[in-house]
Amino acid sequence: MVKAVVGDETQLKLAENRLTRSAIPSQVGLVIGKLSSNLDKGFVYDLVPTPSNDNGEPPCSLIDGVGVGNSKKKGSSRTKSQPESSTLFVDNEWVSEHARQVSRMLLGGMKVVGIYIWVNESSFKNSAITLCQTVKGVAQAASLVENDWNERLLIHISYSPLRWTCRNCSLAANIASSNLRPCDFKMGKVLSSLQTFRCTYNFDIRLPLGHEDGRHIGRFADVFRHGIMIHAKELRSSKALIDGKLLIEDEQNASYDFHEVEFLLPLLQDKYVEACSQKEVFGVVLFSGSVCSLAYLNSKEPVSQALADIKEDIIMSLLSRVEMLCDEADRESESIADGGKDSRNQISIEKPVPQLNLGAQRKQYNISFPRRVFIPWLEGTYICDYIKPSETVEVVKDNCVDLMSMEAPTDASEILEPEYEAPPLITSTTKSFWDIAAHDSSAAKSDNSVSKRNEGSTHRKSAKSSDLNPMVAVLVVVLSIIVGLVFFLIRAA
Prior knowledge:
The protein is an alpha+beta fold. About 35% of the residues lie in helices and about 30% in strands. The protein is built from 11 helices and 19 strands. Strands 10, 11, 12, 13, 14, 15, 16 and 19 form an 8-stranded mixed sheet that branches. A hairpin with a 4-residue loop joins strand 2 (about 25-35) and strand 3 (about 40-50). Helix 6 runs antiparallel to helix 8 (about 305-340).
């Protein structure tokens, strides 16, 4: 349970000045920070306002007691003109969607940990249940994977008088005003005390496709989510080298600010091959590449927390790329459906690969995952975004402005591209599944690539070649016997 919260003084004062100058009656946005279970403390790095929706409407507004809008012009006297019965309307779905997209851009040790609200005292008190519902929606949209908390932060910035307060919001099933509990809040140096941990994680995952309980394995996204979560268990159990030295449990940080991390995975003992021996296998998915990960740690936390943050960041990065491919496929399907009425006589367009049922396919597919790039953010820290192999870093600028409410990087060289694009994945249809499963992993490529291979047409070829092996062996034995007899007869004569 979070008992105290410390916010970065520099960034929160900038947010306060921005809100004061804006003269708007209300604003809602996301709290970016970290909840530390080791310290029972929360850290706030920055406040990110939720942008207007697609119709240009703000995500929150004040309504009076009879439901009539109470928006005010800039420069008006907010404190005196707003009735005591005013309450907040919050577009929960839009705020949650903002949280989902922002969470993709945050690195290890930085999460969406709640929301903030800029509104007067009376309206805040009248809107407790509404705000709790918004906090819960944000928590569901920006989950913290397995190590999830059952609470989030709600920061209230009141302008009459100007005052900051912070509350814990319990994520209980039943929403009530009692879900909000006050906690200590102060400002100090937070971002400047962070230490950076970097890891380049290479992976080579083989996912066999077979029948389970008489059914085919499902869609592309389901197969990959399942495979990533299986691999996540292995990653979480792995040991780590930090700056070339094996981590000692609960070891505190070194005095310097930057650390290199390398994970040591346990030997898998061909577990995928063993699993496939018990079911009919008709194909295999190869999932290989590299994830560059960064994590930020408070100086008072143990190093083990940084490793947990990096592992979570790697898993979330892989899952985010799958989600992005699925989102793009959904948009393509919608555009095809919209144009379908006028194209009945045209050849039908094949489904996007992420929507395909891999168990029903009988051909090979290659997919390149989006690459991760790093964008400078606050106090030497970074956030990330993803680009397609055909895109340049220029496309990330609009996302930075819209989602993070920050100035776009003016110098493209400041955007880091540690996951450079890999050459096209070379595939072959002449190898059987067992050749692929037993083949030694090639050097990991820095762009995440996926390949689905079907082995139905090649099984007969491999079977024929395997039938020839016993015949050759028999011929060799017979020839050896004949040669031996000839030598024996010559020596006897």
